[in-house]
Amino acid sequence: MSKPVIVALDFADDFECINFLNQFPKDEKLFLKIGLEMFCQFGYPFVRSLRERGYNIFLDLKLHDIPNTVKRTCEMIAKWDVQMLTVHASGGSEMIAAAKAGLAGSATKLLAVTQLTSLGQNELANELQVPLASQDYVTHLSKLAFDNGADGVISSALEVPMIKAATSTDFLCVTPGIRPKSAQVGDQKRVATPAHARNLGSDAIVVGRPITQATNGYQAYININEEWNK
Ligand SMILES: O=c1ccn([C@@H]2O[C@H](COP(=O)(O)O)[C@@H](O)[C@H]2O)c(=O)[nH]1
Predict the structure, then answer these.
(1) What share of residues in the chain are helix, strand, coil (percent, to 5)?
(2) Architecture of domain 5-229 in CATH?
(3) Does 8 sit in the ligand 1 pocket, CB within 6 Å?
(4) ipTM
(5) Catalytic residue list contains 60
(6) Which residues lie closer than 8 Å to 184 by C-beta, 6 or more apart?
(7) Residue 1, pLDDT score
(8) Residue 112: how many CB atoms within 10 A of its CB?
(9) Per-residue model confidence as pLDDT tens digits over 124-145
(10) Of the ranges 9-13, 66-70, 78-82, 147-151, which one carries the lowest mean pLDDT score?
(11) 115 close to ligand 1 (CB < 6 Angstrom)
């Protein structure tokens, strides 16, 4: 079975977003990521309208707050019938467990963000003052997430083998920071091509600008999907 390419919908307006989606054939079962940019502008009605069009939704809100607040927020989101939701693993064990409890009874998978793919070893050591190698920090946060009920993590593809070894082969590794060979890296630091992510064992890749800013977004999606699911 093919693994999903999750398209990150980071558009400034909903008209541009719908135009982008209209390039795809109606029967293309897309998996879409709604992040902070679009959610802050269009909120839940936008999520609902995309669910009603039959898309799978990854709601990337990266919640990070005290356990009670996160639990109550997750209780609300549990009613939205989205496929995936993110919290920050650095919110700690209690917060991750509270998020999972808030989602109880829903089919929404809880994913914990480890080290953002826009942060490299330099930022980790010098800005965040984390005295660990990036791969060890990501593995540590993944174990914390696993031990507290998360269904998976967000990491770069580069850490997937270590995460699976430290947790379980079933623990989901969803990986942004994907760049085909010809694409600009931009603000991402820990990147992999779709083929490399496949070989490293990612369960799903998240791709934004290489698809949404391509001249032909549909063709860019097909090319990435072919490389990823080869
Ligand atoms: O560590 C993380 C967590 C989330 N993201 C999100 O994924 C997409 C990537 O978009 P590109 O345009 O392909 O860079 C974006 O929505 C981020 O918010 C991430 O990149 N890294």
Answers:
(1) 45, 15, 35
(2) Alpha-Beta Barrel (3.20)
(3) yes
(4) 0.99
(5) yes
(6) 209
(7) 82
(8) 29
(9) 999 999 999 999 999 999 999 9
(10) 9-13
(11) no
